Amino acid sequence: MNRRAAIVFIVLTVMIDAMGIGLMIPVMPDLIREVNGGDLGDAALWGGVLATTFAVMQFLFGPVMGGLSDRFGRRPVLLVSLAVMAADYVVLALAGSIWLLLAARIIGGITAATQSTATAYMADITAPENRTKNFGLIGAGFGVGFILGPVTGGLLAEYGTRAPFWAAALLGSANLILGYVVLRETVRPEDRRRFDWRRANPWGAVRQLGQLPGVRQLLLIYFLYHVAFAVYPSVWAYFGQERFGWTPALTGLSLALFGGTMALVQGGLIGPFLRLVGERRTVLSGYAFAALAYGGLAVLTSGPVALVLTPLAAFAGVIPPALQGIMSRRVSGNVQGELQGALTSASALAMIASPLVMTATFARFTGADAPIYLPGAPFLLALGLTLLGAAIFASRLGAVRDVDLK
Fold first, then answer.
1. CATH for 3-184+212-398, among 1.20.1250.20, 3.40.640.10, 3.40.50.2300, 1.20.1740.10?
2. DSSP character at residue 268
3. How is residue 195 annotated by DSSP?
4. What Rg, from alpha-carbon coordinates, does the chain have?
5. Does the model's pTM come out above 0.70?
6. pLDDT tens-digit profile of 175-232?
7. What is the distance between the alpha carbons of residues 206 and 118, in angstroms, rounded to a whole number?
8. Please, are residues 356 and 56 in contact by the beta-carbon 8 Å criterion?
9. How many CA atoms lie within 13 Å of 68's alpha carbon, on the beta-carbon side?
């Protein structure tokens, strides 16, 4: 197997997935109002419903996809899911009602659950001591997707609210062809684990992994990080339009700045950072950057200052790969898919709760009957969750020290 080509494909898969999400964000406020009417607050609430629906499916199917890849192999699960994902973007491009958008988000959430399989594939072809670094490459791919996706979506919005979805369908199809050519199976027949529905349901997978020493607390920390982080995809387009009067193009550029910083951090800086300070201090440093960004965005009124603060939150992107690296060394090779499926479900569970809470908070503090006008209220909530996660991690340092970091 050409390992380098496989790594490129995995990173591209995550990148194109992020591009598909990023392409949509700048046009979602206008698209929802186009098919359903209402004001910006109403659009934000429907945006929260769509995002939550997507996340529910990702939560339910993350362990299923991971477990299927442990049983039948990574390659077929990835390729079938990519084909369905490309078709789903076509449905989004043609949708004429909010209910068809909702149906498409259900399908999209199922196919997006393959991120667990992609991460397990990366674990298969990487030595244990290099997994944190290569998990960072996956994060970098996500960051690059967030550079290209929002910019492209904002620019394509000039040609209509549907143009970004056609672009996503083309990208997904091209990646499917690349995967068919370069991807080789990594799960050997003797290592394949029997598929068990009791372990393939999200609660069963999390419960099973939570029995391992130290993993339960790390899963909770991982979950809290994603609840806070989800404030960006949940309310950023609505927040920018309400607070600063940003157009879709400017929203896309602001998200590209965020994605560019994340790609730089996870693709280039995380390796040297880990060598200098270790995984524990890497996590704590990420929390410090996140707290500064969320606190500032909650109260500022200047668009240019918001653009300056945005990269700080991207520096918090060192947290997930460091946590993944710690946990992946605590489980055996034949359950890497299950671990990554559980982590996918944890992040998806965060995306179930976060969009509804964040968009409802935004609507509550921007409506006519708001107790106080504060479009940045969702970022205050994200700040509180970030401080809680940091406190739990700091209080559990003893459990993390037991992990063999060499």
1. 1.20.1250.20
2. I
3. P
4. 20
5. no
6. 888 888 877 777 666 566 666 666 666 666 556 655 655 677 788 888 899 899 888 8
7. 19
8. no
9. 19
